[in-house]
Design brief:
about 100 residues; mainly alpha
């Protein structure tokens, strides 16, 4: 993740914080008044990201690692994972010329 733009890293960090807060709230580790919306927001994020997998399937397959990892990253981070893969398609098409 070292070559990513700062906004991509910040977005991924915010996703991780949201998911951690949701798990903490769901498990009862956080007081009831702290971030009560975290679980709902996390479920909405995961649902939207699940829709991105079939919509951006060509980009999901461009990830250089295992396909299952790319799907997991897309479910967790959505377009934040897929945005750098867009650039790899452009460089691949230019190198094929």
């Amino acid at each position: 993740m070292s070559g990513l733009a700062p906004w991509l890293l910040a977005g991924k960090a915010l996703c991780i914080v949201l998911y951690a807060a949701a798990v903490g709230h769901w498990a009862g580790w956080m007081p009831s008044g702290v971030m009560p919306f975290a679980t709902t927001l996390a479920v909405v994020f995961l649902g939207l990201h699940a829709l991105e997998v079939p919509i951006f399937w060509q980009r999901v397959k461009r990830y250089r690692g295992p396909l299952a990892v790319s799907i997991a990253f897309t479910l967790l981070f959505g377009l934040l994972h897929l945005t750098p893969l867009r650039g790899s398609a452009e460089s691949d098409s230019q190198s094929a010329r």
